[in-house]
Automatic annotation (TrEMBL):
Record PANTHER family: PROSTAGLANDIN F2 RECEPTOR NEGATIVE REGULATOR, V-SET AND TRANSMEMBRANE DOMAIN-CONTAINING PROTEIN
SUPFAM superfamilies, per the entry: Immunoglobulin
Domain Ig-like: 32-124, 157-265, 276-373, 404-533
Descriptive protein name: Prostaglandin F2 receptor negative regulator
Domain of life: Eukaryota
One term under GO cellular component: membrane
Organism: Podiceps cristatus (Great crested grebe)
Bilayer topology: Single-pass membrane protein
Amino acid sequence: NCVCFLSLFSCLAFCRGRVVRVPKGPLIRVVGTEVVIPCSVSDYDGPSEQNFDWEFSRETDFVRIVSTWDSTFTSEEYQKRVGHGDIKLRRSSNDAVELVIRNIQPTDQGRYKCSTPSTDATVQGNYDAEVQVKVISDGLSVSGSKARSSTSLRLSEGDSFKMRCSAVTTSPEHTHLHVTWQIKSGSAWRDVLSLTHEGKFQPGPGYEERYRNGDTRLDTGANDTYWLSVSQASSVDGGAYRCLVSEWVRGADSSWQKIQEKSVEIASVAIQRTALDVVISTSNVSVTERDSLDLTCNITTDRSGVFQAEVTWYFSASPDDTLSDAHVLLSMDRDSVVSDSTLISLGHVDRNSYHLLVRDVDVEDSGYYFCQAAVWVPLHNGSWHKVVERTSAPVSVAVAVLEPDYEVFLNASKTPKFSDDPTELNCRITNVQDTEANIRFTVSWYYRQRLRSDDVMAEELLATMDADWTLVFGDRSRERTQNGEIIFSKKAVNTFSLRIQWTSESDRGDYFCVISAWSRHRNNSWVKTKDVTSASVSIFWAAQDYMLTVEAVKLKPFFVAGHTFEMTCKVSSKNIKTPRYSVLITAEKPLTDQSNPNGTTRIISLNQDSVVRLEDWTDQTRVDGVVLEKVQENEFRYRMYQTQISDAGLYRCVVTAWSPGGGGMWREAVNGLSNPIQIDFQTSG
């Protein structure tokens, strides 16, 4: 029912009501196949699940077939087929069903009507729809080889194979064939390559690249034949093969519809993996430096016919390294072309043996050697395909170093008798034998402190020399070397020297040197081959302990605030060579003095060069109120003018004795502290 609104330009119709739909006919189907006719309803009222009735007519009258809601709906001539399940309804949703007819026959050709009983409040729309079904004869024939059973093929990896399928149709309709080659290596069939009903080639999953490379092809031939060609066969190509052919026709709506499908098994293919053993003839090899290393790689394969081998030698520092981490030494391709190398060569003795020769080996050639071999077979298009590749177990190669023979002698040409005297040590290389032009010597100097107990003191590195004669200093000698206090030198070709310009007590101990021999390799790098350590030389002299005494004397026994405080410090020392003294005056204030909660105040100092410095004296009103002066070499006087109550406390002299060091520098010898002098105004007269 429609309502139409007229205007000057148009007529608009607004319709609402039930719509029942079936495919647009005619539906062309092949005798003996299963036919499925869908029917759906929309825009209806009432419950969501709708019922359906199906009827059939060859000419004019309709005969009831089957119903979703009325078990008595089926007419007598269909009761047997419905009861056996040859005709049934299959619900696909609440508003859709499918009429399924198995083994359709020419007598089933006609009109099929799908009806839906009304559940609407008002009758609107259409309640049934019809579709014409046309049943044609089966004209599709699919066959393989002329043999009654499928063929069995046994192939090797890399081989090629072809198989043929014949498919023809004599259908009265204009139909197209869709041919698919399939393989089954497990329980399911998988598509290899198809020629669709639209004339397009379609590779199956996993075969896309092989199709693009031309390794998998589908060719058509005379007499409706379809050839599958497979190149570079591998283990995944083993299994059963069949030819699956479907017949398609264009429907009334121009869409393609598959009307039947047939298949035939063509062949069973077994792919035999190519066996390949790769073995290096020796296990562990020892060779002397400068000699030649000769290794043989033997390959064995069960491959027959035409093939070529490719061999590559690898070197690795570890037996656990993968080939991606290893270094390629040399390779020989399948055309027997060897990659270029100066000191390494690869020889092809026979078809199964390949020699690696490394000339003039050195220590860097020590490690693990691998041999990798691959077998290549020719293809129909003239190219080659690698069917198998194997790698040998690693062979350990140890290169023995040609060590030079020499001795090391250490002696002291200058030994100190007293502190600040010079020390000079000479490290000499003697009795040198079996050395070549590509050998050089370097030195390392070490110091070991001498302990009075049995404790072992670890040696300290003073300096070491690299292969390029670059000197690297240790922590103990770095600053003194930069200041010129320690000098390292090479006096002669075979003599290295260590000189301490001014030897101190801390330098006393044992000294030794290590002479290292370095060998030059093919790449002009230097590698240490040997170390020889000298006997130690002891640097020691008897030294008495320094002694220092400081006596403080108050010059005025009684005084009052506002007067001058005066004290002297007299210094006496022993076992110190030409000493000089530096003096520091300190005051220890009572704990009640909040100006210095730490207790001790540094007031004024005089260094060994008689330079005076105010330390922590902060009284701005008495900047010149304190004086420290040198009366004589071992006597110093301290004055404090206009004393105040806050100056009460204990006063001391802190004295440091200095002796001349190397390079005009002063070296601290010993410290001394005087007796305290008290300022106490409560008891002062």
